[in-house]
Design goal:
Layout lengths: L1 H10 L2 H14 L10 H28 L15 H20 L4 H21 L6 H20 L2 H23 L5 H20 L4
Helix pairs in contact: 1-7, 2-3, 2-6, 3-4, 4-5, 5-6, 5-8, 6-7, 6-8
């Protein structure tokens, strides 16, 4: 059971969630995907993987190598400061690139929502511990909720239910691993959903 919980925590780590959302909107049967040429889809996904997965992972490995991080779990708040800052810078770069390549507005919004959630997680990191896993899933829920409000399609409703189910599965795994308390999970999920929803209805840019 311990191995299963660790696999779930890894597969649905916050570092991968933005890529999952971009894959959903580019390669699944969504109205948005029909308007994007295959070449642009590949570019969107490649940039997302580079800026939200590959470079952040390299940063973490480098920080571990130079002794800044004691382990990859980053249990101490001070160990999460530099990874949070570097991730925010990378997400800002991704927003800029999406805007510069004139990608469909939704992708710029998704990247901006991710940036906002990381920023809020970063601020909370100085005061209390919340679940970044949960805030990422809550952010996904907020994105799909907004998308459903625009297009009113059943497929998105299914995805919304999937996000709620995923929160239950990932939350259970995090509790089993004693990585978080229920309050930290619920707080993270609510914050992620709230930040995403507020951004879409009251966009910054």
């Amino acid at each position: 059971m311990n191995i299963i919980a660790k696999i779930i925590s890894f597969v649905f780590h916050p570092i991968f969630m933005l890529s999952y959302v971009v894959v959903y909107f580019t390669f699944s049967n969504t109205p948005v995907a029909h308007f994007i040429p295959l070449r642009e889809k590949n570019i969107l996904l490649a940039l997302t993987l580079l800026f939200s997965v590959i470079i952040p992972l390299l940063n973490i490995f480098i920080l571990k190598k130079i002794g800044f991080l004691h382990d990859f779990k980053m249990q101490e708040a001070k160990q999460r400061i530099v990874p949070y800052i570097s991730t925010m810078m990378l997400y800002f770069g991704l927003v800029y690139l999406f805007d510069n390549m004139h990608a469909i507005l939704l992708f710029k919004q998704i990247a901006m929502v991710s940036l906002c959630i990381v920023f809020v997680d970063f601020v909370f990191n100085f005061f209390i511990k919340i679940s970044a896993h949960a805030s990422a899933i809550g952010g996904c829920l907020g994105i799909f909720y907004y998308y459903e409000k625009i297009f009113s399609i059943n497929e998105t409703l299914t995805t919304i239910c999937g996000c709620l189910l995923l929160f239950g599965i990932v939350g259970s795994a995090r509790l089993y691993l004693e990585a978080h308390t229920p309050k930290q999970l619920y707080a993270g999920f609510f914050i992620g959903f709230l930040v995403a929803t507020l951004y879409f209805f009251y966009p910054i840019i």
